[in-house]
Specification:
Strand content: 15-25%
Number of strands: 9
Shape: globular
Largest sheet: 7 strands, parallel
Radius of gyration: 17 Å
Structural class: alpha/beta
Oligomer: single chain
Length: 241
Amino acid sequence: MKVALLGSTGLVGKNVLSLLARLSQVVHVYCPVRTVPDLQVLGITKGVSKIHFEPVDFEQVSGTYRQVLMAGFLGCDAVICCLGTTKKQAGSKVAQEKVDVRLPLSLAAIAKSAGAKNFLCVSAQGADSHSPFFYNRLKGMLEEGLTMMNFETLTLVRPSLLLGKHKDKRFGEELLQKTIGAHPEWIPAYVRPVHAETVAAHLVASLLKPPTDHICATDGVKGKRIIYNRVLALTKVDELF
Protein backbone atom coordinates (compact mmCIF):
# COMPACT_ATOMS: atom_id res chain seq x y z
CA MET A 1 0.00 0.00 0.00
CA LYS A 2 1.21 3.47 -0.92
CA VAL A 3 0.01 6.35 1.24
CA ALA A 4 0.36 10.13 1.02
CA LEU A 5 0.50 12.05 4.30
CA LEU A 6 -0.19 15.79 4.47
CA GLY A 7 0.93 17.60 7.60
CA SER A 8 3.42 14.90 8.53
CA THR A 9 5.40 17.05 10.98
CA GLY A 10 2.45 18.28 13.07
CA LEU A 11 1.12 16.90 16.35
CA VAL A 12 -1.17 14.28 14.80
CA GLY A 13 0.80 13.88 11.58
CA LYS A 14 4.02 12.75 13.20
CA ASN A 15 2.09 10.10 15.14
CA VAL A 16 0.45 8.91 11.92
CA LEU A 17 3.86 8.82 10.23
CA SER A 18 5.31 6.72 13.02
CA LEU A 19 2.47 4.19 12.72
CA LEU A 20 2.70 4.02 8.92
CA ALA A 21 6.44 3.49 9.07
CA ARG A 22 5.94 0.43 11.26
CA LEU A 23 3.10 -1.13 9.26
CA SER A 24 4.09 -4.02 6.99
CA GLN A 25 1.07 -3.27 4.75
CA VAL A 26 2.51 0.16 3.91
CA VAL A 27 5.46 0.14 1.53
CA HIS A 28 5.72 3.84 0.64
CA VAL A 29 4.75 7.06 2.43
CA TYR A 30 4.79 10.23 0.34
CA CYS A 31 5.07 13.41 2.43
CA PRO A 32 5.01 16.82 0.72
CA VAL A 33 6.51 19.31 3.18
CA ARG A 34 7.70 22.90 3.32
CA THR A 35 11.00 21.81 4.85
CA VAL A 36 12.38 18.28 5.10
CA PRO A 37 12.49 17.38 8.81
CA ASP A 38 14.92 15.28 10.81
CA LEU A 39 13.19 11.96 11.47
CA GLN A 40 15.04 11.53 14.75
CA VAL A 41 13.63 14.84 15.93
CA LEU A 42 10.17 13.48 15.06
CA GLY A 43 11.01 10.39 17.10
CA ILE A 44 10.85 8.00 14.14
CA THR A 45 13.55 5.33 13.90
CA LYS A 46 11.76 2.35 12.31
CA GLY A 47 10.71 2.03 8.69
CA VAL A 48 12.50 5.21 7.65
CA SER A 49 13.40 3.82 4.22
CA LYS A 50 9.74 3.87 3.14
CA ILE A 51 9.28 7.56 4.03
CA HIS A 52 9.80 10.00 1.15
CA PHE A 53 9.70 13.75 1.81
CA GLU A 54 9.10 16.15 -1.06
CA PRO A 55 9.97 19.84 -0.52
CA VAL A 56 7.05 21.85 -1.88
CA ASP A 57 6.20 25.54 -2.02
CA PHE A 58 2.56 25.37 -0.91
CA GLU A 59 1.96 28.81 -2.36
CA GLN A 60 2.41 27.22 -5.79
CA VAL A 61 0.41 23.99 -5.52
CA SER A 62 -1.89 24.96 -8.38
CA GLY A 63 0.95 26.19 -10.54
CA THR A 64 4.63 25.33 -10.53
CA TYR A 65 4.35 22.40 -8.14
CA ARG A 66 1.18 20.78 -9.48
CA GLN A 67 3.04 18.28 -11.66
CA VAL A 68 5.47 17.53 -8.84
CA LEU A 69 2.55 16.73 -6.55
CA MET A 70 0.74 14.76 -9.24
CA ALA A 71 3.79 12.54 -9.59
CA GLY A 72 4.03 12.09 -5.85
CA PHE A 73 0.35 11.19 -5.45
CA LEU A 74 0.42 8.82 -8.43
CA GLY A 75 -0.24 5.26 -7.27
CA CYS A 76 -1.32 6.30 -3.78
CA ASP A 77 -4.11 4.16 -2.40
CA ALA A 78 -5.02 6.79 0.18
CA VAL A 79 -4.27 10.28 1.40
CA ILE A 80 -4.25 11.19 5.08
CA CYS A 81 -4.57 14.90 5.83
CA CYS A 82 -3.43 16.31 9.17
CA LEU A 83 -3.01 19.91 8.02
CA GLY A 84 -4.19 22.67 10.30
CA THR A 85 -3.14 25.78 12.17
CA THR A 86 -4.39 28.44 14.57
CA LYS A 87 -5.16 32.08 13.95
CA LYS A 88 -2.19 32.99 16.15
CA GLN A 89 0.17 30.84 14.09
CA ALA A 90 -1.24 31.93 10.75
CA GLY A 91 -1.41 35.62 11.64
CA SER A 92 -4.96 36.29 10.48
CA LYS A 93 -8.30 34.64 9.77
CA VAL A 94 -7.62 34.86 6.03
CA ALA A 95 -4.28 33.09 6.43
CA GLN A 96 -5.83 30.45 8.68
CA GLU A 97 -8.56 29.74 6.14
CA LYS A 98 -5.88 29.24 3.51
CA VAL A 99 -4.14 26.57 5.58
CA ASP A 100 -7.22 24.89 7.04
CA VAL A 101 -9.47 24.90 3.98
CA ARG A 102 -7.99 26.01 0.68
CA LEU A 103 -4.69 24.12 0.89
CA PRO A 104 -6.21 20.76 1.91
CA LEU A 105 -8.88 21.03 -0.78
CA SER A 106 -6.32 21.96 -3.45
CA LEU A 107 -4.11 19.01 -2.50
CA ALA A 108 -7.12 16.67 -2.32
CA ALA A 109 -8.16 17.70 -5.83
CA ILE A 110 -4.67 16.97 -7.17
CA ALA A 111 -4.60 13.62 -5.38
CA LYS A 112 -8.02 12.72 -6.81
CA SER A 113 -6.78 13.59 -10.31
CA ALA A 114 -3.77 11.34 -9.69
CA GLY A 115 -6.08 8.42 -8.87
CA ALA A 116 -6.30 8.40 -5.07
CA LYS A 117 -9.51 6.67 -4.01
CA ASN A 118 -9.52 7.06 -0.23
CA PHE A 119 -9.17 10.27 1.77
CA LEU A 120 -8.84 10.57 5.53
CA CYS A 121 -8.79 13.90 7.35
CA VAL A 122 -8.51 15.42 10.80
CA SER A 123 -11.44 17.79 11.24
CA ALA A 124 -12.76 19.13 14.55
CA GLN A 125 -15.58 18.61 16.99
CA GLY A 126 -18.49 20.83 16.04
CA ALA A 127 -17.41 21.18 12.40
CA ASP A 128 -20.24 23.04 10.67
CA SER A 129 -20.04 25.51 7.80
CA HIS A 130 -22.84 27.52 9.45
CA SER A 131 -21.33 27.56 12.93
CA PRO A 132 -21.07 30.91 14.73
CA PHE A 133 -17.50 29.91 15.63
CA PHE A 134 -14.90 30.68 12.97
CA TYR A 135 -12.75 27.58 13.49
CA ASN A 136 -15.73 25.24 13.35
CA ARG A 137 -16.94 27.00 10.18
CA LEU A 138 -13.57 26.39 8.56
CA LYS A 139 -13.67 22.69 9.35
CA GLY A 140 -17.26 22.47 8.17
CA MET A 141 -16.29 24.08 4.85
CA LEU A 142 -13.42 21.61 4.55
CA GLU A 143 -15.69 18.62 5.20
CA GLU A 144 -18.25 19.82 2.65
CA GLY A 145 -15.57 20.36 0.01
CA LEU A 146 -14.09 16.91 0.55
CA THR A 147 -17.54 15.29 0.42
CA MET A 148 -18.25 16.97 -2.91
CA MET A 149 -15.08 15.45 -4.39
CA ASN A 150 -16.67 11.99 -4.24
CA PHE A 151 -13.72 9.91 -3.11
CA GLU A 152 -14.62 6.23 -2.91
CA THR A 153 -14.21 6.53 0.86
CA LEU A 154 -13.90 9.55 3.13
CA THR A 155 -13.01 9.34 6.81
CA LEU A 156 -13.42 12.47 8.94
CA VAL A 157 -12.10 12.45 12.51
CA ARG A 158 -13.56 15.12 14.80
CA PRO A 159 -11.47 15.49 17.97
CA SER A 160 -12.02 17.97 20.76
CA LEU A 161 -8.91 19.51 22.34
CA LEU A 162 -5.80 17.58 21.35
CA LEU A 163 -3.42 16.47 24.08
CA GLY A 164 0.26 16.31 23.24
CA LYS A 165 3.33 18.43 22.77
CA HIS A 166 2.65 21.11 20.19
CA LYS A 167 5.47 22.76 18.26
CA ASP A 168 4.16 26.15 19.37
CA LYS A 169 3.44 27.12 22.95
CA ARG A 170 -0.29 27.14 23.78
CA PHE A 171 -0.77 28.34 27.35
CA GLY A 172 -4.47 27.55 27.59
CA GLU A 173 -4.05 24.00 26.34
CA GLU A 174 -1.02 23.38 28.55
CA LEU A 175 -2.96 24.57 31.59
CA LEU A 176 -5.92 22.33 30.76
CA GLN A 177 -3.64 19.33 30.21
CA LYS A 178 -2.08 19.84 33.65
CA THR A 179 -5.48 20.37 35.25
CA ILE A 180 -7.31 17.34 33.88
CA GLY A 181 -4.39 15.10 32.95
CA ALA A 182 -4.79 12.82 35.96
CA HIS A 183 -8.59 12.64 35.80
CA PRO A 184 -9.90 12.88 32.21
CA GLU A 185 -12.96 10.89 33.27
CA TRP A 186 -14.23 14.02 35.02
CA ILE A 187 -15.09 15.48 31.62
CA PRO A 188 -17.96 14.05 29.52
CA ALA A 189 -16.68 11.87 26.69
CA TYR A 190 -18.18 13.99 23.92
CA VAL A 191 -16.00 16.98 24.89
CA ARG A 192 -13.14 15.22 26.66
CA PRO A 193 -9.65 16.14 25.38
CA VAL A 194 -8.04 13.27 23.50
CA HIS A 195 -4.45 12.33 22.82
CA ALA A 196 -3.00 12.96 19.38
CA GLU A 197 -1.85 9.33 19.35
CA THR A 198 -5.49 8.22 19.60
CA VAL A 199 -6.54 10.36 16.65
CA ALA A 200 -3.60 9.01 14.63
CA ALA A 201 -4.51 5.43 15.51
CA HIS A 202 -8.10 5.90 14.31
CA LEU A 203 -6.89 7.36 11.03
CA VAL A 204 -4.59 4.42 10.42
CA ALA A 205 -7.23 1.88 11.51
CA SER A 206 -9.66 3.42 9.00
CA LEU A 207 -6.93 3.31 6.37
CA LEU A 208 -6.61 -0.43 6.88
CA LYS A 209 -10.40 -0.92 6.95
CA PRO A 210 -11.88 1.81 4.75
CA PRO A 211 -15.62 2.52 5.14
CA THR A 212 -16.49 1.23 1.67
CA ASP A 213 -20.03 0.15 2.50
CA HIS A 214 -20.66 2.56 5.37
CA ILE A 215 -23.56 5.00 5.01
CA CYS A 216 -22.98 8.31 6.79
CA ALA A 217 -25.86 8.96 9.20
CA THR A 218 -25.76 12.74 8.77
CA ASP A 219 -26.05 13.00 4.98
CA GLY A 220 -26.53 9.48 3.63
CA VAL A 221 -23.27 9.49 1.66
CA LYS A 222 -21.96 5.99 1.02
CA GLY A 223 -18.32 5.42 1.90
CA LYS A 224 -18.20 8.36 4.32
CA ARG A 225 -17.47 7.84 8.01
CA ILE A 226 -17.33 10.46 10.75
CA ILE A 227 -15.46 9.45 13.91
CA TYR A 228 -16.75 11.60 16.75
CA ASN A 229 -14.91 12.70 19.87
CA ARG A 230 -16.98 10.41 22.10
CA VAL A 231 -15.57 7.41 20.22
CA LEU A 232 -12.04 8.79 20.44
CA ALA A 233 -12.32 9.46 24.17
CA LEU A 234 -13.54 5.94 24.96
CA THR A 235 -11.09 4.13 22.68
CA LYS A 236 -8.38 1.76 23.84
CA VAL A 237 -5.82 2.15 21.08
CA ASP A 238 -4.60 -1.43 21.37
CA GLU A 239 -8.08 -2.64 20.40
CA LEU A 240 -7.96 -0.87 17.03
CA PHE A 241 -5.35 -3.15 15.48
